[in-house]
Structures are given as structure tokens and as C-alpha cells.
Amino acid sequence: MLRTGSGESHIKQVSYSLCNICAYHSLRHLVGDLTMMFVNFMPSITASKGYRGRETVARAFVDYYDNKGHESGSAWAKNRFNVSIKNGISVEDTAKFECGGGIAILVNTVPSVFWMLYHVYSNPLVLEDLRQELSTIILTTETPDGVPIHKIDITQIKTGCPLLTSTFQEMLRCRAMGTSVRQVMEDTLLDGKYLLKKDGIIQMPSRVIHTDQGIWGRDVDQFDHRRFTKDGLESARKRGDGAKRPSPAAFRAFGGGHTLCPGRHFATTEIMTTVIMFVVRYELKPVSGDWAAPTCAKTNIAATIMEPDTDIDLLVQPRVGFEDASWGFGLADSEMVFAVAEEDMRWPMKRSEIIIKALDSIGLMATTKRTATTGFGWGKDRLRAKRGAIMREVWGFNRAVR
Ligand code: HEM
């Protein structure tokens, strides 16, 4: 819960739309009762809160579609609606599907923002480090009447904020608790010694992997915001913390393989931008005076990020020197991605390289050679065209392949 520290104008800045709060709480009820909803035994009674929550969210979506809200919404909102309708799905059922989409979109991002704010503000050193780093990418100009305008380019966050990115990864390492589950399709021998039998089920709990001293070192239980930076390992070693170089393969917050979270780039950007706005503009202090970490025992089965069992009541005040200004984000054209999952990682990996990797995995790269000049070596025009078509279809890009 946020409480304002000074003045009416500030209240406006931190207030949420009542409607969003209502839908969000309904969604939370749905998530909370999800296990019983799956059991599906008289859910209106056995999972009454979740059942009613789903009705509320679905009704809100029906209103949204009836009022043509999606037509002025994002391409994503429009396309999802159009695909459903084109395939004969009613507006009512489309609205219900969106309840599931809402779970994927919100259930992990909201607690991620919570934990980022918690870890950043509960340690003045982390807050200071991030403010220092962010000050290097804020572009400040002025309106004719002297009001500052601050702009942040998201591309620059990707290239110029290794500490923020590392803090984000460390938060995910410490707070992720999802379990990737796979079924074995045929007998498979791993590493010459582990036989996985056909039809067996493999479970890969990220919490176990993320807290393994053998992988992360003796300081595995500490939150080290520099752990994932290049110099972080070096300084931890100097401190004698027994730190180890983070293994990209052991970072499982977004899962991995074919079902690697497709929303990870979107999630990373929205979490980062929200947290940045707090860090550069506000001071947060717990009303109780103490940043006591909430327990997470009630975290729902659908979540892969721990959910705090209780709120932290906060006093929110504008940061001195940043009270009256306008703020904005921009996005310069760039091939960079936030590379936090192993699959994205060749520090930093370009979007074109990810595509090559994807094409590799479906066997197309093997038929061509790379050239020293472009590093691509697209080979025959026919293949090039085919790649372009695949790329546009799979990745939704509208730029031609070069
Ligand atoms: C911090 C935020 C998020 C975290 C930690 C997260 C984590 C995960 C994990 C662990 C998986 C399972 C991967 C596996 O099977 O190994 C997953 C799957 C998925 N996520 Fe996310 N996710 C996040 C945000 C999002 C967002 C914002 C979206 C949508 C915009 C999204 C959409 C999906 C979808 C559709 C799948 C299923 C993929 C499939 O089965 O092929 N996620 N996510």
C-alpha cells in the first residue's frame, strides 16, 4: 500500500485507477483459488472468491470489447481479439481467455516490482549505486518557462545500466520459485550416466538451483546486486565471500528451452521502467521504520515469483531536487535485448543473433556458410527470402532481413 508523504498533487501521481484496482484484486482472487478451480468440483462454492473474481474480470473485458476499447489499444490487444473472433470464439469466451492471459502478464511482474523496490530501498548502498548509474542516462532539457524535462531511452538502459540489470537478475535469483516440468518422450541417457526413462516426468525447481552453494558459491544466501556484473565477481572474491561466476544455465527464473517464457523481454522492460521511475523520483520509507521482509508462505501455485503475504505500508515522498518536472521514456531503434536468460545470452546478444540461433535450431543455418564481412552469409536468395518469411511469421518483425 502506498501512502503519500506531501501534498495533494503528489497523491495524484501515485494514485491508481479504481477500476484497475478492482480488476487486479479480482484477478488475485482468481489466482488464489486457482488450484480449486482446476479441480472443478462445484467451483462456485469450493472456490467462490476465485469464481466471482473471474466473472468480474471477464465482465470487464466484455465491456472493453463492446466499447471497442481494443480498437484503440495495442497491436497485441487487437490481434488477440481478432484471432479469437476469426476462429469462431464468442466475445464472452474471448473475455474468459483473457483472464488466463492476465495471469501470465501480471502474476509474476507485480511481485517482481515489489521485490525490486524492496531490495533497492532496503539497502541505501544499492539505492545510491543505482541512482548514480541512472544519472548517467537521464537526458534533461527545459520547457520555455524553465520546468525540467527528463527523458530516459530504454535502449540506453540495456546498454548503460549493468548494475540495474544485475540487480534485476539477483532479485529473480532470490525470489523465483517456479518449477519447469517436462515429460520424457524417449529413453535418454544424459552425461553417459543418467537414464531418463520414456514417459517419466522431470521437475526442475528454480528455487533449488538458485540456492545451490555448489553453483553460486558460499554467499548464495546474500543479496548481492553486483553478482551478475563483470566486476561483481571480482569484488566478491576480494571480500572473500567465496563467490562463483554465475552460470547462465543455472539461472532459471524464465524457465528454458522450447517453453522459455516468451514474455520475458516485455516483462523485463516494464519492471525496469516502473522501478526506475520510483528510484529517480521518490523516497520510500516503511511506516513501521523497518524494512522487515514479508513471509511468502501463501504464494500461489500459478506464480513463479514469491508473493509477499503482507503489504509494507510506505511513506512516499518526492526526491529532493526532482519534485517538479516532467518525465518520459523513449525507445531508440536498436538490436539489443535485455539478455537475462541463458538462451538470450552472449553478453550482450543482438536481436539478429537470436534469430540466427532460432534458425539454427530449425536447421536452416546449417545449409549456408557465414561470411567474414556480415557474419550472416545468407547464401542463396531463395533461402534468404525463406528466412525473411519465417522471421516475420515467428518473430512478428516487419523489417526485411538484411
Ligand atoms: C517477471 C515476470 C515473468 C516471469 C518470472 C515469468 C516466468 C515464466 C516461466 C518460469 C515460464 C515457464 C517456462 C518453462 O516452461 O520452462 C513462463 C512461461 C510463460 N510466460 Fe512468463 N514470466 C513472466 C512474465 C510474463 C509475461 C509479462 C508474459 C506475457 C506478456 C508471459 C507469458 C508467458 C507464456 C505465454 C508462457 C508459456 C510459454 C509456453 O508454454 O510455451 N510471462 N513464464
Label this structure with key terms:
402 residues; mainly alpha; Cytochrome p450; three-stranded mixed β-sheet; 17 helices; 10 strands; 47% helix; globular; disordered N terminus; disordered C terminus; binds protoporphyrin IX containing FE
In short:
The chain has 402 residues and is mainly alpha-helical. The protein has 17 helices and ten strands.
According to CATH, what is the class of the largest domain?
Mainly Alpha
Portion of residues within helices: 40-55%
Distance between the termini: 49 Å
CATH superfamily of the largest domain: Cytochrome P450
Q: What best-fitting shape do the alpha-carbon axes yield?
A: globular
How would you classify the helix and strand content by structural class?
mainly alpha
Average pLDDT rating: 79
Describe the structure.
The protein is mainly alpha-helical and 402 residues long. The protein has three domains: 6-106, no CATH class; 109-346, Cytochrome P450 (Cytochrome p450), CATH 1.10.630.10; 367-402. 47% of the residues lie in helices and 11% in strands. It contains 17 helices and ten strands. The strands form four sheets. The protein has a three-stranded mixed β-sheet with strand order 1-9-8. It has a three-stranded mixed β-sheet with strand order 2-3-10. A hairpin with a 5-residue loop joins β2 and β3. α2 (18-32) crosses α5 (48-66) and α5 (48-66) crosses α7 (91-106). The radius of gyration is 23 Å and the shape is globular. It starts with a strand and ends in a 7-residue tail after the last helix. The model is unreliable at 1-18, 347-352 and 354-402 (pLDDT under 50). It binds protoporphyrin IX containing FE. Protoporphyrin IX containing FE binds next to α7, α8 and α15.
